[in-house]
Structure formats: structure tokens, C-alpha cells
Specification:
The chain has 230 residues and is α+β, with helices and mostly antiparallel strands. Helix content is 43%, strand content 30%. Strands 3, 4, 5, 7 and 8 form a 5-stranded antiparallel sheet that branches. Strands 6-2-1-9 form a 4-stranded mixed sheet. The longest helix has 95 residues. It is elongated. The termini are far apart.
């Protein structure tokens, strides 16, 4: 009987030891899982913060790039304005201080300005009388735009450009600006502009041949505000 009791005691003690050992392993595994989950959460938060920081830096870089490009455009526009002011100053100096003895009207310069309407261009033609002794001259300017349409050479007259009757007439003693709009046909590719004043009386023949790209100015738009760099 005592032997049976001893065996039962040993079995009970072994069961208790096994229970505590198993429970301890389960607790250790549970604790390890908790640590791993916390580590994973910290890493996820760190990755999320890195992505946020990266997004901020990319936005800042894009903003700085846009600001730099806008500054470049502003500088280019200002340089173009300075050149235009110099050209206008030289133009008025030629008018106020004539030095030549040439009789009659001369073609001083031509500028073209893009408009918001496709194929439409605003032209400005400056005529002057460079002689010191000036008299009144009247006449008609002939305008031709040379280019191509459907890969074939084509020359457009003033009427084909949409000019009104009498639009190219002048009457000047000092200078005159002729202005208006030209409408190019769809698909027409301009190459050059030819301005002609025919010989008539004391007026000598005059001709100006200019490349389209040399007299064309881009469409003027209001400058966009510079992005704010934080």
C-alpha cells in the first residue's frame, strides 16, 4: 500500500513539474510574440515617418524647382523688355535726330505678336522719314507672307491675311505706326515677311524682307506668382 502511495506521489509531483514547465514555456512564447509585435509596430511607425519626411522633402524640392523655373522665366522676360526698350529708344532717336539726306519714307522695323487666337498675329509696322528736310508723303504698303501650305510654296497677300481695304495706307511727315491683325490659313507655315513700298513720284522703292522667326514675339501672359518656399 505504501508503495502505491509513493508511486502516486511521484506521478503527482511529475505532473505538477510538467505543468509548470509547460506553462512557463507558453508564457515565454507569449512574451516573445508580444515583443515581436511591439517591434513590428515601432518599425511600421518609423517607416511611416520616413515616408512622410520623404514626401515633405519631395514637395519642397518640387516647390524650389518651380520657383527657380519661374525666376528664370521672369529674368528672360525682363531681358526681352530691356531689349525692346532699347529698340524703341533707338527708333525715337532716329526720328528726333535725323542724319540722312534720303528723300521719302523708309521701312524702319516690323514686329509680330502672337495672340490667344490660333493662327492670328498682331503686326506693327514702323515707317519713318529719315531726311532732315521732311515733307508729307502718302502711299500704300504692300504686304506678302511667304511660306508653305500642304507642303507646297504659297504666298499670302494682305487681303488673304484678312487686312481691310486701305489698312496699309500711310500719310506721314515724321513717322507712322501701322497696326492690325493677320489671320493665317489653317496648316499654313510662314517662313518670311516681305514689305514693299513702290516707287511713286519722289518716293523711292523700299523693301523689307524679314524671317518670320526674327520678327515674331511670343504670346505675353501675366507671370504666375512665385511658389512660397518654406
Amino acid at each position: 500500500m505504501s508503495q502505491i502511495v509513493k508511486v502516486l506521489v511521484v506521478l503527482a509531483v511529475g505532473a505538477c513539474i510538467g505543468y509548470f514547465i509547460g506553462n512557463r514555456q507558453e508564457l515565454a512564447q507569449s512574451s516573445l510574440l508580444t515583443v515581436q509585435q511591439e517591434t513590428l509596430e515601432r518599425q511600421s511607425k518609423a517607416i511611416g515617418q520616413l515616408k512622410t519626411d520623404l514626401g515633405v522633402k519631395e514637395t519642397l524640392l518640387a516647390t524650389q524647382k518651380a520657383a527657380f523655373e519661374q525666376l528664370q522665366k521672369t529674368l528672360k522676360d525682363q531681358e526681352a523688355q530691356v531689349q525692346e526698350q532699347k529698340r524703341q529708344l533707338a527708333f525715337f532717336e532716329r526720328i528726333m535726330r535725323p542724319t540722312g539726306d534720303q528723300v521719302g519714307v523708309t521701312i524702319d522695323n516690323l514686329t509680330l505678336q502672337e495672340t490667344s487666337v490660333p493662327g492670328r498675329y498682331h503686326y506693327r509696322l514702323a515707317l519713318t522719314q529719315p531726311a532732315k528736310k521732311r515733307e508729307l508723303f502718302r502711299g500704300q504698303v504692300q504686304i506678302r507672307v511667304e511660306g508653305s501650305l500642304a507642303d507646297k510654296p504659297r504666298i499670302l497677300s494682305g487681303r488673304e491675311l484678312g487686312m481691310k481695304v486701305g489698312e496699309g495706307r500711310y500719310a506721314l511727315r515724321y513717322f507712322q505706326l501701322l497696326e492690325g491683325n493677320w489671320q493665317l490659313p489653317t496648316g499654313f507655315v510662314p517662313d518670311r515677311v516681305r514689305i514693299i513700298i513702290a516707287k511713286e513720284g519722289r518716293q523711292p522703292a523700299q523693301e523689307l524682307l524679314a524671317e518670320w522667326s526674327e520678327v515674331l514675339k511670343p504670346l505675353v501672359t501675366q507671370p504666375a506668382p512665385l511658389p512660397v518656399v518654406q
